Amino acid sequence: MSMTAELATVPDTIEATLNYIVNDGTKLFTYTGGPGSLDVRTGGQPDPRRVTLRNGRLAADRFSLERDGFHFVRHDTRMRDFFDEAEIRSTYYAEMEALVKAESGARRVVVFDHTLRTADDELRESKKIREVVRRVHNDYTEWSGPQRVRDLLPDEADELLKRRFAIVQVWRPIRHPVETFPLAIANAKSISDDDLVISERRYPDRVGQTYAITYNPAHEWYWFPRQRREEAIVFKVYDSLKDGRARWTAHTAFEDPTTPPNARPRESIEIRTLAFF
User: Residue 38 — very low, low, confident or very high, per pLDDT cuts 50/70/90?
Assistant: First the structure.
């Protein structure tokens, strides 16, 4: 079946369960080991909720990074093998720097990290890549955004932090169209600061922070069905400006009720960048 025909059969909205957190005052933290290790979460009561997700393809050209927090773009890559670390660093990092510059208007973009994820346990073990993240979160907080600049660019951080900066991520499938555990993303305008709960991420060498998210019926969720390798979601997970623009984008992998039987497990790459203005 052609992609167009396949997408014609996708509903305008679906219902799915997303895993929020109960904010009961418990300290939240996740321990993250080395590559390929599973995240071990302790603290905090999961709060699974049935929500409606809208098919983002129907409004793809309306989304803006500054207003909604994300943008779905057609973007071809010269990458041959996303399991080749050296090729990612030599080819993909430069492509992503150019893409984030174009999407955000930043004058300087520094790619600092990438994460491969798969829903295939065997592949995860053999390639030492991470599992999909099935809880609603935003990757940085008011504290950990600027802290990342200090960690990565210690000599320039004081100067850089005097001006606006953002952390922008790019998510895409690395081989096949996404059939399992697609990315759900919430419109930044629908997220309230009251929905954000600090969660520590404890790495072997440092401690970071992310936001876990509490349920709010106002959240406006989107997904992009059957996302392909040449399609990317660019989204913002921190912005130092507090002038009403998008600052955080809640997102999560989710179990898709339209997943076909015997679907191929999702494989994706997420890239993280510092954008300086």
Answer: low
Structure tokens at 53: 């997700």
- At residue 5, φ and ψ (nearest 5 deg) are -65, -40
pLDDT at 5: 56
- Residue 40, burial from CB neighbour count under 10 angstroms (0-12, 13-18, 19+): exposed
> pTM of the predicted model, to two decimals?
0.92
| Phi and psi torsions of 260, nearest 5° | -70, 155
For residue 162, CA distances in Å to 157, 159, 203, 241, 251 come to 9, 6, 28, 11, 29
CB 113 within 8 A of CB 149: no
What's the distance, CA 156 to chain centroid?
Answer: 27
C-beta of residue 45 within 8 angstroms of C-beta of residue 135? no
Q: Which residues pair with 202 in a beta bridge?
A: 31, 207
Q: Quick check: 248 and 10 in contact, CB under 8 A?
A: no
CA 55 – CA 116 distance, rounded (Å)? 25
Q: Look at residue 228 and give its three-state secondary structure.
A: coil
Q: Which amino acid is at 126?
A: S
**Conformational region of residue 25, where left means phi above 0, alpha means psi within -120 to 50, and beta covers everything else:** left
Other C-beta atoms lying within 10 Å of the C-beta of residue 107: 10
Which of 244, 271, 229, 240 is CA-nearest to residue 166?
240
- Nearest CA to 171 out of 216, 226, 106, 117 is that of 117
